[in-house]
Amino acid sequence: MTLQKIIARNVRAIRLVRHLRQSDVAELTDLPRTYISHIEKGEVNITIETLERLAAAFKVNPLILLVEDSMRGWK
């Protein structure tokens, strides 16, 4: 799986576990909701700055977003 797809899967998984809407994440990161949607679909390559914004919004280490299956066991 590509890193882009891993990030997409992890962003969506964390968002759902935290019971957030894409619009909530957009507000927390100061990014457009449509961009969050594209991230979750793996349609865009994000910058390190965006990765840091997402991690800060979710209150996780940025590495969590980069590791395949890092969401296993989260509830």
Contiguous helical run count:
5
Largest sheet: none
- Strand segment tally: 0
The CATH class name reads Mainly Alpha
Structural classification? mainly alpha
Number of domains: 1
Taking Cα atoms only, what radius of gyration do you get, to the nearest Å?
11 Å
Low-confidence stretches: none
CATH topological fold name:
434 Repressor (Amino-terminal Domain)
Q: Report the span from N to C terminus.
A: 23 Å
- Average pLDDT: 93
Based on the coordinates given, report the CATH architecture. Orthogonal Bundle
> Helix and strand string, N-terminal first?
HHHHH
Instruction: Give the name of the CATH superfamily.
Output: lambda repressor-like DNA-binding domains
Can you give the helix content as a percent range?
Answer: 55-70%
Characterise the protein shown here.
This protein has 75 residues and is an all-alpha fold. The chain has a single domain, classed as Orthogonal Bundle (434 Repressor (Amino-terminal Domain)), CATH 1.10.260. Helices cover 63% and strands 0% of the residues. The protein is built from 5 helices and no strands. The chain has helices at residues 3-17, 22-29, 33-40, 48-58, 62-66. Helix 2 (22-29) crosses helix 3. It is globular and about 25 Å long. It starts with a helix and ends in a 9-residue tail after the last helix. 17% of the residues are buried.
